[in-house]
Amino acid sequence: MVARHYWELTAWQAVVAFKKGIYDLIEREPLATDLKLREQLRESVASAQSHIAEGFGRFDPLDNARFVKMARASMLECHNHLGDAVDRKRITEDTRRDHLLRWEVAMKEIGGWLDYLQSPEAKQNADRIRQQRAERWRARKHGNSKPKRNREL
Questions:
Q1: pLDDT of res. 63
Q2: What pLDDT was estimated at residue 153?
Q3: CA-based, 20 to 30 A from 66: which of 33, 41, 72, 75?
Q4: Can you list the residues of the chain whose pLDDT is less than 50?
Q5: Measured between alpha carbons, how far is residue 148 from residues 128, 134, 139, 144, 153 in Å?
């Protein structure tokens, strides 16, 4: 399936699932009262989701990959904060492990998306789509009938 919107990406969806779990976690005591740690968790997981969406808006696969790498780094930051929450006795190790199950799924999806974006296939697909868009633009500009639109665009 070709994703036409960032919210169709399995990497974005997996990060959202992880993020919702973190949001539920930071609303519970005693983590809810540790405002700094709570904010660090919230910001790191939210930025991971945002980076994937922003990268999708960059049509160039390597530029998109740059944002996906930032998303991966934000997920690693969140992982670190969960460990810090255990060290500060704000959550238990079992709670951390429960959240890391969703973290691992998200990281696997991010890794797969990043692998694709850095592949020759991604560059070829982007070049093909750019070419088709240019042909449609030229046809409209010169008053020719519209060429058939490829459903994968």
A1: 96
A2: 47
A3: 41
A4: 153
A5: 15, 13, 11, 12, 11
Write out the two tokens for 14: 């997996």
Question: What is the pTM for the complete model shown?
Answer: 0.86
- The structure tokens listed for 15 are 């990060």
Alpha-carbon radius of gyration of the chain: 20
- Residues 6+ away with beta carbon under 8 Å from 86: 92, 93, 96
Q: Where do runs of H (alpha helix) occur along the chain?
A: 10-26, 35-56, 61-87, 93-117, 120-141
pLDDT of res. 143: 78
In the structure encoding, which two tokens stand for residue 67, read together?
Answer: 């944002």
d(CA 59, CA 57): 6
The tokens of 25 are what?
Answer: 């976690």
Nearest to 63 by CA among 131, 122, 9: 122
What Cα–Cα distance (Å) separates residue 1 from each residue in 9, 50, 138, 139, 147? 10, 22, 28, 28, 23
